[in-house]
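Researcher: I'd like a candidate sequence for this fold, 458 residues long. If you have to choose between options at a position, lean toward the conservative one.
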């Protein structure tokens, strides 16, 4: 059974899907770029500072991704409400999202306070632990704007309005670059703060980015943020929204955790295998932003269609997301399989690291197609309001199959690093097949709109 068995997408659906997905891809790249700039600039201070920021960003991402996933509950709630013409329901959904973002910031903040102990538990170098801990703990200042930005970004995507997010992301990255130059190196009379300066810069940039998004997106956001918030604070609907989002957060955490553990496994193999793994993973992470964009676009467009009761349109949009998202990953897979040495030498000239990366990049090529498939399927499931079963399918694919196979092939055979990647690929294949099967079965039904409250509040 293929994605195309649902319904062949018309040119209109493909154009609409691409038009929404392309800016979302740029936004995703912009979010990654902020951490990349931090690492690149602080690397000029010292190797310990570089390691501290890299480790700090790693910790930030693996904690924050759970909160980001939880806030994806807005995809079905807001998009389906707008599709149904229920603007009051959409307004309450956006407002509840902001309240949940603030709550998630508090929870993540407590996790950040314990980062020093976590780094020592993971046996990180003693010289690096204080730097990474300071970076993470100073990052707490930027948590509220970060999570509220995610809520407003998802809300604007549900409104099919993405340009304000692009402007905000560009401004935020510009501020981060300038503030890093000032605070890391002590320019313009500021003290040279090193790692702490990088953390302050990112926190400042996140506040600026949120303000810029509010300004640029205010015409679309104003009807949803102004007026009474009393209905949005009702405990029952808030809890129902959280119940919808928590499985998404867990699903994302399971996936990110699997890759984090695989990275630790490569660390046990040695410095050169770890460096080669980072090359392949960096490449895969970059190309993954494209199906993530189509996943988000699919969640919004399918959500609109479900909300207005147009399942035929939902099926065509689903097929369009698969054609474009998986099609791109298939093209990138061909490139990785054909030119592994050229790609590896983009990242490093170290012959030993290039040799390792060349063995992993073709596996990443195979990996690409299934990673894109599961990403698009997950977005489609969100758009229909299906969150719990996809979370369990991810748990099965990554943790019941992928990680055990990675450990077995990596350390129980002579495959080593390639064995770890083949284990991850096996888990991804299972996740992709199961998620695709689930969403196609679901899209054949007449799906009811997700409503988190029994009756609209007055």
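Model: Candidate sequence:
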């Amino acid at each position: 059974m293929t994605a195309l068995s649902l319904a062949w997408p018309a040119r209109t659906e493909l154009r609409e899907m691409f038009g929404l997905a392309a800016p979302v891809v740029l936004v995703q790249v912009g979010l990654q770029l902020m951490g990349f700039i931090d690492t690149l600039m602080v690397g000029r201070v010292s190797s310990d500072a570089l390691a501290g920021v890299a480790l700090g960003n790693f910790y930030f991402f693996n904690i924050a991704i759970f909160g980001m996933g939880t806030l994806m509950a807005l995809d079905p709630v807001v998009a389906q409400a707008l599709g149904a013409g229920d603007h009051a329901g959409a307004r309450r959904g956006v407002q509840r999202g902001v309240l949940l973002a603030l709550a998630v910031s508090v929870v993540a903040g407590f996790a950040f306070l314990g980062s020093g102990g976590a780094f020592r538990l993971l046996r990180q170098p003693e010289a690096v632990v204080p730097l990474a801990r300071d970076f993470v703990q100073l990052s707490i200042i930027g948590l509220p704007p970060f999570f509220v930005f995610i809520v407003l970004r998802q809300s604007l995507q549900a409104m099919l309005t993405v340009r304000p997010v692009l402007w905000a992301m560009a401004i935020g990255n510009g501020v981060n670059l300038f503030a890093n130059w000032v605070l890391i190196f002590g320019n313009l009379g500021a003290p040279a703060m090193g790692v702490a300066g990088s953390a302050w810069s990112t926190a400042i940039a996140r506040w600026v980015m949120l303000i810029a998004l509010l300004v640029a997106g205010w015409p679309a956001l104003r009807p949803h943020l102004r007026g009474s918030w009393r209905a949005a604070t009702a405990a029952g609907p808030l809890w129902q929204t959280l119940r919808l989002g928590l499985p998404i957060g867990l699903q994302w955490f399971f996936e990110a955790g699997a890759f984090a553990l695989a990275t630790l496994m490569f660390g046990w193999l040695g410095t050169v295998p770890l460096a080669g793994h980072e090359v392949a993973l960096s490449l895969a992470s970059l190309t993954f932003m494209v199906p993530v964009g189509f996943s988000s676009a699919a969640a919004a467009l399918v959500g609109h269609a479900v909300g207005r009761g147009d399942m035929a349109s939902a099926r065509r949009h689903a097929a369009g997301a698969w054609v474009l998202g998986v099609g791109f990953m298939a093209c990138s897979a061909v490139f990785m399989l054909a030119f592994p040495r050229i790609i590896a030498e983009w990242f490093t000239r170290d012959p030993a690291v290039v040799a390792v990366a060349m063995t992993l990049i073709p596996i990443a090529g195979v990996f690409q197609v299934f990673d894109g498939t599961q990403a698009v399927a997950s977005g489609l499931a969100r758009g229909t309001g299906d969150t719990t079963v996809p979370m369990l399918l991810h748990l099965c694919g990554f943790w019941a199959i992928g990680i055990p196979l990675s450990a077995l092939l990596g350390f129980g055979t002579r495959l080593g690093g390639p064995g770890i990647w083949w284990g991850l690929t096996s888990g991804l294949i299972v996740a992709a097949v199961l998620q695709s099967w689930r969403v196609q079965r679901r899209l054949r039904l007449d799906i009811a709109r997700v409503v988190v409250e029994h009756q609209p509040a007055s």
